[in-house]
Design goal:
mainly alpha; 12 helices; globular; 336 residues; 1% strand
Length: 336
């Protein structure tokens, strides 16, 4: 039987999406933080980078959503197939459109990219590969580095789900120990391991009563307080703790604002969030090209942000519609 939709997951996904939209706008209009901010801050309490905060919420809510919807009789092969169908067709469609436009409009842009890195693009690991330093340049043009990170976590999900159902606290401690250790040693270019405990934290939370959720958030708050007193903690570890606390707070906020229009708005944003994630960065980079960023006023920055949201919404809607048409057409082609 299909489980009821959890509004708080839609709400948290919306907050994560807004954070990512704002931070990439900030990065673009400030010349990657070389100019003063005019609309939004990029730093949260405890010196946390807004982009890291949005990513943390994204990983936590991803783990929670997958665990919540996982059937009792879990089929790993079926899960991998379903994830591939959810991720790759729209990614390839967005890539084909954006790559074609950029390749024609900017001759020589990809001259430094090695042909073999097309494999990374096909696997959705292109931005991740550049961020990790595997390659200097490839054919990346849509999505973000954390698509590659979540794909790695998808590979681990069947094992994590088994641990969550059989030995939840032991598995949580192991993911924390492993994730923090690998992150601090830098073996993963600090892109995946720290998100493993975040991802499992979401899985754990969605199985808990509200009372236990509060206790877990209280423990994270105590750790946050400890780092404030001691200082010198890794900022991404601090962000993970802060994100965990905010996640639980938003669960209770959802109880207070979960009326019709808000529910429908968050559900709508959740529906289009992946399409937005794929196209938003391409759009803002193109929009700022014609502006003198140093002379950009606060008013014009606000108008540019409005235009950015409008164009992103339009592009995401069109991409979502095209994805449905392509899937239907391909299905008819294969199955008749």
């Amino acid at each position: 039987m299909k489980k009821p939709r959890l509004f708080y997951l839609d709400l948290i996904r919306t907050v994560a999406l807004i954070s990512i939209l704002i931070i990439h706008f900030n990065a673009s209009v400030t010349g990657y933080f070389t100019l003063p901010h005019k609309l939004f801050t990029s730093t949260l309490p405890f010196g946390i980078y807004l982009g890291d905060f949005g990513s943390t919420l994204f990983f936590i809510v991803s783990g929670a959503s997958l665990c919540y919807t996982a059937p009792e009789r879990f089929d790993p092969i079926g899960f991998y197939k379903k994830r591939c169908r959810a991720v790759y067709p729209m990614f390839w469609l967005a890539w084909a459109i954006c790559f074609s436009i950029r390749f024609v409009s900017r001759p020589g842009y990809y001259a430094g990219a090695r042909t073999v890195t097309l494999i990374l693009t096909i696997l959705g690991l292109d931005n991740f590969a550049v961020a990790a330093g595997w390659v200097g340049q490839d054919f990346a043009c849509v999505g973000e580095w954390f698509l590659g990170s979540i794909l790695f976590l998808y590979l681990l999900f069947p094992l994590l789900l088994w641990g969550c159902r059989k030995h939840p606290w032991v598995t949580f401690l192991l993911t924390c120990a492993f994730g923090v250790s690998v992150h601090l040693m830098g073996w993963d270019a600090r892109l995946v391991a720290i998100h493993l405990p975040e991802f499992f934290f979401g899985m754990l939370l969605v199985t808990m009563t509200r009372k236990r959720q509060i206790l877990l958030a209280a423990a994270a708050t105590v750790l946050l307080g400890s780092q404030t007193l001691l200082g010198g903690w890794d900022t991404k570890i601090v962000c993970a703790l802060f994100g965990a606390v905010v996640f639980v707070v938003l669960i209770f906020v959802a109880d207070c604002i979960g009326f019709g229009p808000v529910r429908r708005l968050c559900a709508l944003l959740g529906k289009y969030s992946y399409a937005v994630f794929l196209v938003h960065h391409v759009i803002i980079l193109r929009l700022v090209e014609g502006f003198d960023l140093g002379a950009l006023t606060r008013r014009d920055t606000a108008l540019l942000f409005f235009a950015y949201l409008v164009f992103t919404a339009m592009a995401a809607s069109v991409l979502h519609w095209l994805d449905g048409k392509v899937r239907t057409g391909f299905s008819h082609l294969v199955h008749g």
